[in-house]
Task: structure prediction
Amino acid sequence: MPQPSESVTAAILVIGDEILSGRTKDKNIGTIADFLTAAGIDLREVRIVPDEAAMIVEAVNALRARYTYLFTTGGIGPTHDDITADCVAEAFGVGIDVDERARAMLLERHKPEDLNAARLRMARIPFGADLIANPVSKAPGFRLGNVHVMAGVPGIMQAMLDSIAPTLTGGAAMLSETIEAAGLPEGNYAGDLGEIAKARPAVSIGSYPAMTPDGFRNRIVVRSRDAQALAEARSAVEALVARLSA
Amino acid sequence: MPQPSESVTAAILVIGDEILSGRTKDKNIGTIADFLTAAGIDLREVRIVPDEAAMIVEAVNALRARYTYLFTTGGIGPTHDDITADCVAEAFGVGIDVDERARAMLLERHKPEDLNAARLRMARIPFGADLIANPVSKAPGFRLGNVHVMAGVPGIMQAMLDSIAPTLTGGAAMLSETIEAAGLPEGNYAGDLGEIAKARPAVSIGSYPAMTPDGFRNRIVVRSRDAQALAEARSAVEALVARLSA
Result:
């Protein structure tokens, strides 16, 4: 296993009744997962909770305490069900009010006479937070401590993620190699693969079956922060697949 | 709000490093969410955790205690990283061993001489569990208490879900209506919509912006278990949208 000093961890908290009802299919988890893997940050946990203050506060506090970074999506618009900013303030025990920097951003998009109470909700930022720019529709996200609060609309979330990327400290990148086991059934190689994995604590080995029109198509993925250990494990797995396919 | 007696709740636990790494994009959450909504069961929380026993056991115990039903996906194959069955047994404090009913199912697909130790892992079932049939590849899932353990491969998960559907008790179905706010900006109706929501505790109202090539396209969704309250709320929202669009 990698040393703890090499490991930078993260969690995602998706906030929104519309995801839990199935009406909206989440796209942000996969996007953030890819982003974090590329940045050398281990995504360790994801939670999806409804638009309810008690559940949001509990999840924010559980996840921010446990991981290096927490990324939230959703609940920062102008309507009554957008309560993420207030919940994050409550989780940290800090105040929240209209932020003049955020108001200025909204004024880049809205005329002063259109900046009604509802829109000003989008400028409510917990005290002590840094803003995360929103090049799409201006209403900003924010970072408070290790918590990054982003929009739920995928296009805006992606833009926010890009803008915070330079501020994140990644760990040693996790390297991975995929070995196609193709038509070889998992049950044929599972025992030997387990032995290979057990003997290589610096390498994580997974076997992932997928159904295709041509039947099961299995892939074995080896992952490690140590390039040499990864190459050695890959060779061992390839030799196993070759032997069983012969 | 619906009476507690009318509310049947659920959580989903997705188990798998491959989802957290981004390598595999989850499709099961949306499928199960749609299924539960149709069954009148409130999906209240989702978690995704890695293939690590401590995290799986903790999540199983947290979620099974809190909700009527827990549905897990992933980690029931034949390889060393498939540890869900053992973790569920540990969470319940019960033993686990090869189950003769499950072995018989595997023998429908595999010759006795091919039923090696790895494949027999798929017949390891916690004591006291009922099996969930797998018409696709035979290796069963299982139900222990209120926890339903299903495969991660979407086609198999779906088949398992269909087979357990008749065993679930749904609550009063949640009804919903969608009002298109189309080009109306959220900030224009957010204040009034909040008032409409506040005055109708039996109805849940959400506003969901989406970016399209034609700009923002907002939808307001009203949900309730009470058909009359729903119809009244829908009229109120439609009147609001009509007034602001005029």
Remarks:
- Chain B touches chain A through 71 residues (CB under 8 Å).
- Residues 4-167 of chain B form a domain with the Molybdenum Cofactor Biosythetic Enzyme; Chain A fold (CATH 3.40.980.10).
- The two ends of chain B are 33 Å apart (CA to CA).
- Chain B has nine helices and eleven strands.
